[in-house]
Write a structure and sequence with these properties.
two-stranded antiparallel sheet, 376 residues, 7 strands
Length: 376
């Protein structure tokens, strides 16, 4: 009896031991697989080890990643806000992620091209934290804070360049003018805000090598290899000729909201937005400041005509630049679509980064070698 009980206990101990060994073996295998995927694939997408690639990161696809290194080769740089320096500036820029250098790479900031080509002192500011933010930015309201607070009287710019990406521009700026003009704050608050917020690219959050991104990467890679499709956070289209320097050059990655927002833009919204810009331009003119407006063409819009016909015929076409160009303007207008379309027709690769929603240095160079800033 005692012998049978001992054998039963031995079997139970053996079972427990085997289960523990199995558990730790599986845990070790799980950790090793995560380490392998992280070191060979996802670290390049999800960490700050490599630059760029918000679309590749969202799609969890390494094939589209275009590694790049931040390097400045221009003769002048823009200046960050420094409360101790109250000397006049030639230009203030204010805008969204394109104005914050979010694309990375060679000559990251378009402001450096303005400074170098025009011998300007360019002060780059983030948008102010007003109560009507759309997609983290409200550039026209931010200008009114500078105007109403007395900030412009301190720094005395000759020009203000307002930048906004096409897909959010109408929503940000086609509201009744009285909802824009009232934005204000105490000058001390404004100066403190700009002292605390630096114009610089975002850095990815720190992740341990064991993270959900590894599993998402494996799933996304399998889906792409088997079906040619990507996840819902990005859209993938085939182009009729190579325009990028990854894969066959014919793959276009874009944000879905570039397509959705394109379909919702109306002529009436553009008329109201243009009226608002003209109104603010007149206010600034009274202070001797010339307003320039630079809407950044959506990546989808810029490459639209080269999406293969079978896909393009069911997709909405943007009317933004075509309709806006017809309207009377009291401000300087930088038509990024017109300028960059010329580069596309030349067959220039990577006007926008293939793996990113932001443009490359090639776009900044083309735009500001074709733009002359003049007083009225």
């Amino acid at each position: 009896m005692m012998q049978r009980e001992n054998k039963r206990m031995d079997r139970k101990r053996t079972t427990y031991r085997n289960l523990i060994i199995l558990f730790f073996s599986l845990l070790l295998l799980f950790v090793l697989i995560n380490w392998f995927v992280w070191k060979n694939y996802t670290e390049a997408l999800l960490s700050s080890k490599y630059e760029g690639g918000d679309l590749a990161r969202l799609a969890y696809l390494n094939e589209f990643r275009q590694a790049r290194q931040t390097k400045n080769t221009l003769s002048r740089r823009f200046v960050q806000f420094d409360r101790a320096d109250t000397s006049p500036v030639d230009m203030i820029t204010i805008g969204d992620s394109f104005s914050m250098g979010r694309g990375g790479g060679l000559n990251t900031y378009y402001q450096d091209y303005i400074a170098s080509y025009n011998n300007f002192k360019v002060l780059a500011l983030p948008t102010y934290n007003t109560d009507d933010l759309v997609a983290y930015s409200s550039p026209l309201s931010s200008i009114m804070v500078l105007y109403n607070s007395g900030f412009l009287d301190i720094y005395k710019p000759k020009y203000i360049l307002l930048q906004s990406v096409e897909r959010y521009t109408v929503e940000r700026m086609s509201k009744p003018i009285e909802k824009i003009l009232y934005h204000n704050d105490k000058i001390d608050n404004v100066l403190h805000y700009f002292s605390a917020v630096e114009v610089k690219p975002d850095t990815p959050p720190h992740l341990p090598f064991v993270n959900m991104g590894n599993a998402k990467f494996v799933f996304s890679e399998l889906m792409y290899m088997l079906t040619g499709k990507v996840n819902r956070r990005v859209r993938l289209f085939k182009l009729d000729r190579p325009l990028f320097s990854v894969l066959d050059g014919k793959q276009l990655l874009v944000f879905p909201d570039e397509i959705e927002n394109t379909a919702g833009i109306t002529k009436e919204q553009l008329v109201l937005m243009n009226r608002n810009l003209n109104y603010v331009a007149r206010l600034l003119k009274e202070k001797g400041i010339r307003l320039y407006f630079m809407p950044v063409v959506n990546k989808y819009n810029l490459y639209y005509d080269h999406i293969v016909e079978r896909e393009r015929k069911i997709l909405p076409r943007s009317i933004f630049f075509e309709e806006l160009s017809k309207l009377p303007k009291e401000y300087g207008y930088i038509d990024t679509k017109a300028i960059l379309s010329v580069e596309i027709q030349k067959g220039v690769y990577d006007i926008f980064y293939p793996d990113d929603t932001h443009w490359s240095w090639k776009a900044s160079e083309a735009i500001f070698s074709n733009t002359k800033f003049v007083k009225q």
